[in-house]
Amino acid sequence: MTHFCPECFGDKSLRSLLIKARPSYPDGVKCDFHPSRKGIPDAVVIDRIDGAIRSNYGWADSNPYVNEGATLPELIEGLVQPESEDILQAVKAELENSEDYDMRKGGEPFYDDNQTFVKYETTYNPLHEMWDRFKYDIVHQQRFFSQRGQGWLREIFSDLEHQKDSSGQSPIYTVSPSEKGWTMYRARRRDTEAERAKACAAPAAELGPPPERLRRAGRLNAPGVACFYGAFDIETCLAEIRPPVGSWAVTAAFDLLRPITVLDMTRFTNEVANRSIFSPVRQKRLDQWRFMQVFQEEITRPILPDDEVLDYVPTQAVSEFIHVALAAEAKGTGSRIDGIVYGSAQRPGGRNIALFGEAALIDGGTDEPEDKLSRAALSGLWDDGAGYVRPSLQNMLGPDPALKLREGSVAVHRITGIDVRWMTEDPDNELQSLDF
Fold first, then answer.
1. Which of 143, 253, 299, 396 could bridge 406 with an S-S bond, Cβ 3.0-4.6 Å?
2. What is the value of pTM for the model shown?
């Protein structure tokens, strides 16, 4: 029997698994390759390596689209990172010896020196199935107080803050007012001269979220709920309101008053961080990343005039869950998630943002009660600059808006043309898809 130890392997996840397993075995047995280290029986080590390989790799010649692959020694070296050639050969021998097949019944060894190995690529993702169940349930079964729905959303979006892309960036992060590139633009159609004059005279109120009872449903907000839909450049901002040629629009720029925490959906267009196949969370992180790539398409899908309000319900529920419930689980962010950054369907390469709750409000906008003082006006009363307000002042304060109008940024635009992109479909295919 061969004995290994965690120090035999360079893969951090495999080493972590073996470190946790080692206390279960006798102290007197030493590693064959590190005599001063406590050893672990080969069956335990090989069982973990064998399971990881069979769950993720297959023969290259069984895939007609792949002509090359890794030999068994190359595969072992790449996955477990053995400290020496002797350890590599020992793992190879133990994998071959561990196989159970009957050649008389046509059985073949999986670990065959004549075979090369390639990684499986599967399109199945359990989160897509869960999302489809959630959408049907919340639209047609139980919309409010659905424990099932909350459970599905928690399963889909939990631990999102632990995701990283290949460059180490998290999709959830906090932005401060001093950071560059966070000016947001908002536009409104204003076709009459009187409407434009009114918007220019009170841009914070006219371009911000409407008063509570006038707020209409949107892709990410239910009726009556505040949401600031903006873009990070004027071109995208104007494209998103889809103005016809000859119409007029008023735009303004808004800057941050305070830090906000966002979920940046555009980061899911990057490759996910590479994780060891021995990581216990690898498949879950990969499934979630791939789901979020598809989910971003649901958010960015253009809203058509014939879309029903029911079409918005699932994404409205998700945005509320992300803003209210996910924040409590997003350890390390220090605050609830205030908004979602997502790509523009109207202008390729453009980015939009939707801010929720008080983060959607504009200082001096429509939602500051006259009998309350603005937090910005009382900023000098903060204790130690930490954002803490003395209890005696709490009742004096109104909402805590995250945005302020940039002075001198209001502009009036006449739409003189639009940029159209299209895809041509075969009409025969469209007819075949109809159910007569």
1. 253
2. 0.82
